[in-house]
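Subject: for your reference before the review

Hello V.,

The reviewers asked for a structural picture of the protein, and I figured it would be easier to keep everything in one thread rather than splitting it across files. Below is the amino acid sequence we used in the manuscript, unchanged from the supplementary table.
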Amino acid sequence: MVLLSVKNSLELHPLPQWPVVDFEIRMSANRFTHVPEEDSDQCGASPGAGPLFSVIVPFLNEEGWLPKCLAALRSQSIDPALVEWILIDNGSTDRSAEIVRDEPRATLLAEPRRDPYIARNRGILAARGEYLAFLDADCLAEPDWLAAMQQELAKSDAAILIGYLAYPSPRSLALQLHEDYEDAKLRQVLESESSACWFGHAGNMVVRADVFKEIGLFEPMPVVGDTEIIHRLRQRQPDAVVRYASAARVVHAEVDSFSMCLTKTYEIGAHSETLARVSPYRTLSLAERLRVVGRCYRIHGYGPGRWLALWGILTLGYAAFVAGRLARGFANQSRPQ
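And here is what came back from the structure prediction:
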């Protein structure tokens, strides 16, 4: 019954428009060889030579969300002189590029190869900021987003900051519980669990520009490239600091139902096995998941009804993750060698 419910949800919300990209990982001296050395040397600016933040937003046919995304960026409380915006058209066929072109503060770039991480790489190479702030076109930054990132950077030597992803209001109980759990998971994993479990999300993430100079650009790895870059950094720099900036909030506006969460969880599951094969990453064990649930309970103090509802949504989420992983495994087995 659980897997049937997940299947029905996925049929209601098909996977995003970016295609699944087949790729081959080739490593040499712990560096991904597809990143040209001369390109990696161009990443970001030297401290003090440009803006503090370069906000990098890839988009593909997002004419509905881009006006709201840009309006949220205009509303940032941080000094505008400290920020540049770089938006990358990843092959849109609607009015998306025109909308960005009409925004005087935005730099518009084009990347015809349809992959969000390749598009982000295009933005990285053009960025002048000391820190690169990654955002998705369907994500709406709250007014203090970059100010909160700046405050977190001022009190830590973080190489990577992961921000808080909220869901739009009004939201269902299931969506609220899922948001609560994801918040507790980031707190628990980044503060208390093995670094092998660390993960990121490029819809709200800040990376120091010199990280890309050191380890190269994002791999064109569907969905999980943001997590892969964390583990590649930790392999090169074991003491690199990755922190959770919970005050830096972004609303993932597209995700307005729990069934959409299940769709995205299925997609993550489909690519998690590949990520584990090319990096030290592993999924949370049962004991680690139980510690996350316990932390979620301590933060929010759920009553019996919400406690049971939380276990229900976690069961569905885990089923979606496993279904995605199994589907990808079957697809790989049936592919001609």
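For the response letter, the relevant points are probably these. The beta strands are 27-28, 31-32, 53-59, 83-89, 106-110, 131-135, 139-141, 160-166, 204-208, 242-252. The first strand starts at residue 27 and ends at 28.

Happy to draft the paragraph if you're swamped.

O.
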